[in-house]
Amino acid sequence: SPSLGRRRREVAEDEVEETPQEKKLRLAKQYLEELRQYEEEEEARPGDLIGDRLKEDVLEQKGRLQRLVAKEVQPPDPTSIRELRGHQLPVTCLVITPDDKVIFSASKDGSLIKWEVDSGKRLCVVPGGKKGTEEQNMGHASQVLCMAISSDGKYLATGDRNKLIMIWDAATCKRLHIFTGHRDAISGLSFQKGTHQLYSASHDRCVKVWNVAENAYMETLFGHQDIITGLDSLSRECCVTSGGRDGTVRLWKIPEESQLVFCGHQGSIDCIQLINEEHMVSGADDGSVALWGLTKKKPLALAQHAHGMQEAQGLQQPYWISAVAPLRNSDLLATGSHSGSVKLWKCGEGFRKLEPLCDIPLVGFVNSLKFSAAGDFLVAGLGQEHRLGRWWRIKEAKNSICIIPLKQRATAPSPAIPDSS
Q1: Quick one: angle between helices 49-62 and 20-41, nearest 10?
Q2: CATH code at 272?
Q3: Which of 1, 341, 352, 367 could disulfide-link 359, Cβ–Cβ 3.0 to 4.6 Å?
Q4: Closest residue by Cα to residue 92 from 113, 122, 76
Q5: Structural domain of residue 97, as residue ranges?
Q6: Structural domain count, the chain
Q7: Assigned domain for 344 exists
Q8: Over the stretch 242-272, which tens digit does the pLDDT of each residue have?
Q9: What is the per-residue pLDDT across 314-336, written as a single tens digit (0 to 9) for each?
C-alpha cells in the first residue's frame, strides 16, 4: 500500500542520516564511555588506565602484543592435574568457552561432552551413533576430528570423518544445522573472532567459508596438494592451514581470494595455531616445532626433535608433534606428542627463539591442547591413538581430558610489550 511504502521510505531515510564519519565518532565515544566505566569498576587504579587499555587494544589488532608471562609460570604439581573421563575412544579435539567455565570435548567414538571446569561434572553428553543414523540421532555417526566455538560462546561447530559439519547451540547442546559440501573428512574448524563466519578445512584439500547465523555457504578456496590437517583464525578476515605431506603452511586472505605459502618443516605438518595476528606456531611428524611471522616465508625459529627420539622398529625416530597451543598474545606455548609429557615453551623476543620451560607428565597421545583465556589452566585431550590414524596404540593411556593448573610466581604484573619484529 502507498502508506506502507511511505513508512518504509521514512525508515530508510532515518537510517541514511548517519554518515560513516558520524558512525565512527559515535562508536569511538561509546568505546571511551565503556573504558571509563571499566576504570570506575577497577576503582581508579594508579596510572593512565584508559591510555594503557587503548595502547594494548591497538597492539593486539596489529598483532604486536606479546604479554611476557612465560617466565612467571611454575611447573605444575602432577598431583594437581585433574583427569575427566567419559569418552570410550581417544579424545580428538576440545575447546574452552570464552568465559573459561565450560569445556567441550569430542572423540573417535562420535560423542560430544560438555564439562563444567570447576566441578568436573558432565553438563551434557551427546552420544555417537552408528553410521548413517545422523538424521535419527542428534549426534555424529563417525569419528569427530575437530571443533570450534564462536567468540561470543553462542555456537559450537564440530566436524567428522563422514564429511559433515554440525552446528550446535552451545548453551543447550541442541543441534541447529548440518553443513554438507566437503568431499572428505573435516579436519579443521575455526570461527573468525567477533563474527559468526566459520572456516572449515578438509582432507579434500580445500577450505570453505560459511555464515553460521544465516546457515549459508559462502565460498571455497583451493591450493593445498595434500590433505589439510589443521586450521586456525583470529579477528582478521583470513585463516591459516597446515597441509600435511605437501610440506606447506598457507595463509588465506579471504576478500582478495589469495594465499601466501610458507615452507620449513621436513615432514607432514599436523597442527597449526595463531599466536597473535602476525605470528603462528606449527608442529610436524619430523618432531619439529616452528614459529612463523606472516611476513617471512621461512620459520623465525625452529626446534628440531622437540619431544626427543623414540625407538621404533629398530630405528631412532623423532616423536611426532600432535598438538600445539599458544596462550594468545603472549610468549607462552605448549606442545604435545606421545612422549609421555606436554612441554611448555617460552618464545624469545620477536618470536625468534624457542626455549623449553618444563615438562608436564601425561601418558598417551596428546591430540588437542588449549589454554584458558586467562592463562590459569591448560587442557589436554588424551587418547590411546593419534587423532588422524592408528599407527601406534598406547595401552596404558586413558581416553580422557586433563585440566592442568598453571600457577604464576607472585610478582608484580608483567607489562605487555610491543613485539620488535
Answers
A1: 120
A2: 2.130.10.10
A3: 341
A4: 113
A5: 78-405
A6: 1
A7: yes
A8: 988 899 999 999 998 899 999 989 889 999 9
A9: 778 899 899 999 999 999 999 99
Residue 153 grid coordinates = 560462546
Average of per-residue pLDDT values in the chain: 87
Q: Does residue 261 fall inside a structural domain?
A: yes
CB 248 within 8 A of CB 241: no
For 262-278, give one letter per residue: b (16+ CB within 10 A) or e.
bebbebbbbbbbbbbbb
Report how far residue 94's alpha carbon sits from residue 401's, in angstroms, rounded to the nearest whole number: 9
How many residues does this entry show for the chain? 421
Contact between 367 and 90 (Cβ < 8 Å): yes
Look at 192 and 416; give whichever has higher pLDDT: 192
Compute the 3-state secondary structure of the chain and give helix, strand, coil in percent, each to the nearest 5: 15, 40, 45
Element (H, E) at 29: helix 20-41
Of 411, 330, 342, 409, the C-alpha closest to 74 is 409
For the full predicted model, state whether its pTM sits above 0.90. Answer: no
Burial class (CB in 10 A: 0-12, 13-18, 19+), 89: middle
Per-position DSSP letters for 102-118, written without gaps between them: EEEEEETTS-EEEEETT
* Coil, strand or helix at 369: strand
C-alpha cell at 53: 587499555
Phi, psi (5° rounding) for residue 153?
75, 10
